[in-house]
Every structure is written in structure tokens, then in C-alpha cells.
UniProtKB/TrEMBL annotation:
Signal peptide annotation: none
Gene3D superfamilies given in the database record: Tetratricopeptide repeat domain
Name of the protein described by the UniProt record: Uncharacterized protein
Organism: Roseivirga echinicomitans
InterPro entries for this protein: TPR-like_helical_dom_sf, TPR_rpt, Ycf3
Sequence ranges of the TPR repeats: 5-38, 107-140
Ranges of biased composition (kind: Polar residues): 165-181
Listed Pfam families: TPR_11 (PF13414), TPR_17 (PF13431)
SMART domains from the UniProt entry: TPR
Region (Disordered): 165-196
Statement: the UniProt record of this protein carries the keyword Repeat: yes
């Protein structure tokens, strides 16, 4: 039975890697019917459900994961994002803070909280958290870019330009050229300073170079320009 469960999960992940998230969910459902607390199955199903906009169902899976693993910062951080996207901001803040307390030296945790603060109107607080993230990881191009976005909102044009210039330099992006490409594939992808147009863009913006590594693998290709 365990071999069949692993087979379903593997198939589900493969579907998701090919952007067939609904098919992925079906596979994860089969596995979780047999083993309801399977960690990998729950986490991947939660991610896939988020990807297709079934946020309440995703929230339930993330919540279960945090109950099973109350000190797992990644599960708690994902749960915080899902809570925020479901307009449960007070509870979301509690979990962003908890994830940061569990991993106080992880710059991704500061970027996560910065994302939340930006989305809920605490722009100065968001800048402060992004600055902390960049201080801990000076090569985090996404945090620099997102910091520039917030600075732009506040009218801090000089600071925003500096943030964007540093981010562009890290990814090898030259805004004066047509169809620029990163110099190397292992650099963080460039997120241009535009307002997110859908929930996936919102979720994507929170994940920094290190924190998003596993999620990027799960959604192979989606960060490099493929459409929903």
C-alpha cells in the first residue's frame, strides 16, 4: 500500500510540474484517502490547491500540517500566506511572526513578513523587513526588487532606483535592452515593478531566492514566463 501511495504522490508532483494542477490534486487525493496525514501529500496538495485558486481547501491542508508539525517554519509560513489570501490577516500575522521566531536567521522569513506588511498597508514596516532580509542576504534580487516597489509607493524615488538597479545588476538585467535575459540560470528571476495581476503573482512575490527553492522546483518553468 505504501508503494502505491508514493506512486500517486509522485504522479501528482509530475502533473504539477507540467502545470496540470487539477490532475495533481486528484493524485494527492487518492494518496491521502489511504494515509490522511501523509506529510508530502498534504503539502503538495495544499500548494496545488492554492495554484488553482481553491484557497479555503488549501488553508485546511496547511492548517493540518501546522497541527502535525507545530515547529515547522516552512509549513507555518505557507499557512500564513494562505490565511492572508483568505483575508484572515490577524491570524496570518501571528503565523508570520511565529515562523520568524522559529528561524530568526533566515532572511526569507523577513521577506515573508515584509510581503504581508506591504499588502496590509504597513509600508514603512515592509521596507524595514526587506532591508533586514537584504542585510542578511545581499544577493537576494527579489527582496531588493520588492523593496523598490514599496519605496516607489511611498514616493522614495532615489531609494527605489537604487533598489531596482541593485536587483537588475544581480540578475544581469539591462532595462535599456529588448528581451533581456539573466546572465546565468542560477540567478533569481527578475520581477518587474508592476502591480500583481492575479493571486499567483501575489504568492510568487513573497518567495525569495533561498526560501522559494523547493517551491520553484515543484512549479518548474512557471517562474520563467509561462502563463497561467
Amino acid at each position: 500500500m505504501s508503494e502505491m501511495i508514493e506512486k500517486w504522490i509522485k504522479e501528482g508532483v509530475k502533473h504539477c510540474e507540467n502545470a496540470k494542477f487539477e490532475e495533481g490534486v486528484k493524485c494527492f487525493n487518492k494518496a491521502l484517502e489511504k494515509e490522511p496525514n501523509h506529510t508530502t501529500g498534504l503539502h503538495n496538495r495544499a500548494r496545488a490547491l492554492s495554484r488553482i485558486g481553491q484557497l479555503e481547501a488549501a488553508l485546511a491542508d496547511f492548517e493540518k500540517l501546522t497541527q502535525l508539525f507545530p515547529t515547522h517554519a516552512s509549513f507555518i509560513g505557507d499557512y500564513a500566506v494562505a490565511l492572508h489570501l483568505n483575508d484572515k490577516n490577524e491570524l496570518a500575522l501571528v503565523h508570520f511572526e511565529k515562523a520568524l521566531q522559529l528561524e530568526p536567521t533566515n532572511p526569507y522569513r523577513y521577506s515573508s513578513r515584509a510581503f504581508f506588511k506591504d499588502r496590509t498597508g504597513d509600508l514603512e514596516g515592509a521596507i524595514s523587513d526587506y532591508e533586514k532580509a537584504v542585510e542578511m542576504d545581499p544577493e537576494d534580487a527579489i527582496a531588493l526588487n520588492n523593496k523598490g516597489l514599496v519605496e516607489e509607493k511611498l514616493g522614495y524615488k532615489d531609494q527605489a532606483k537604487q533598489s531596482f538597479d541593485r536587483s537588475n545588476s544581480l540578475v544581469g538585467y539591462d532595462p535599456t535592452k529588448t528581451n533581456p535575459l539573466p546572465k546565468t540560470e542560477n540567478k533569481a528571476p527578475k520581477f518587474t515593478p508592476t502591480k500583481p495581476t492575479n493571486r499567483w503573482e501575489v504568492m510568487k512575490s513573497v518567495f525569495t531566492k533561498d526560501g522559494f527553492k523547493d517551491f520553484a522546483k515543484f512549479t518548474k518553468g512557471l517562474l520563467n514566463g509561462k502563463k497561467d
